[in-house]
Amino acid sequence: MITVRPLRSTLYIPGSKPRALDKARGLPIDAIIFDLEDAVPAEEKNTARDTLAGVLAAGGYGARMKIIRINGLDTQWGADDANAARDMGADAILLPKVSTLDDLDALAAMTGDTPLWAMMETPLGMLNAAQIATHPKLQGMVMGTNDLAKDLHARNRADRLPLQAGLGLCLLAAKAHGLAIIDGVYNAFKDDAGLHAECEQGRDMGFDGKTLIHPAQIPVANDVFSPSKADIDLARRQIIAFEETEAAGQGVAVVDGRIVENLHIVSARETLAKADAIAALTAETTQ
């Protein structure tokens, strides 16, 4: 049995905005990053922490993955965020600007058994991604492409060529260690065509989904990162052909003129498992 948790759409929600936090309970998203960092002004940091604790205690988010992004431990709010987030019942705590393994060690010392996620958004973090991915409590990475572009002094390009080295290093690290990895945000939230193209790029690279800054972006991310009907049909036909070939004692299965080997069956079964998991989550979030 393959277990898949959909992460097609991961929406940032400010921890200081009760109305947005409540609205998120009804959105067709796979995951939520409850943000105590960039989306919350300095004067609201402490109240946001209390607001978020109350909201999560009230529940209502169903099977959506709940991730809390705290402030960095080098800030005046980070330690209090970490201690509070540990007791909020979230699925994971997300640490910004992870650059070394020591950054995660410092957080893990404060958060007990709560799984950790890492914001990958600094040049040093890119170079250390392989080491960072080995942390025993780390379960996922989120690309912070805006901060990375800033530190690189990179120009904004539709093909994201200046970011490809960093994206690739983090993808390799995540896949090598079985971690989830979510692509960075697309800033032009009214540009569906641009978002669609960037989601397709991220999907084709191997990302599990896209971080979003506005609910209007959800349908595009969900569509692009879901297996298509053609994907599902091909996966089923590959499995049937492979199993029939094995049962007949023949050597090679062929579907649509292409050889089907065991590695293709692994991918086919993952596709069907993802489709089933998405259907189950969709059924819950649309009730």
Structure write-up:
With 287 residues, the protein is of the alpha/beta class. The chain folds into 2 domains: 9-224, Phosphoenolpyruvate-binding domains (TIM Barrel, Alpha-Beta Barrel), CATH 3.20.20; 229-285, no CATH class. It has helices at residues 18-23, 45-58, 78-85, 101-111, 123-127, 129-132, 145-152, 164-176, 192-205, 218-224, 229-247, 262-285; strands spanning 9-14, 31-35, 65-69, 92-95, 116-120, 138-143, 180-183, 209-212, 253-255, 258-260. The strands form 2 sheets. An 8-stranded parallel barrel has the order 1-2-3-4-5-6-7-8, surrounded by 4 helices. Helix 11 packs across helix 12. It is globular. The chain starts with 8 loop residues before the first strand and ends with a helix.
Number of helices: 12
The H-level CATH homologous superfamily of the largest domain, spelled out, is Phosphoenolpyruvate-binding domains
Give the biggest beta sheet: 8 strands, parallel, barrel
CATH topology (level 3) name of the largest domain: TIM Barrel
- Quote the average pLDDT: 95
Order of helices and strands: EHEHEHEHEHHEHHEHEHHEEH
The CATH architecture classification of the largest domain is Alpha-Beta Barrel
Report low-confidence residues grouped into runs of 5 or more.
none
Beta-strand fraction estimate: 15-25%
Distance between the termini: 26 Å
Radius of gyration, in Å, reads 20 Å
**In the residues, how many domains can be counted?**
2
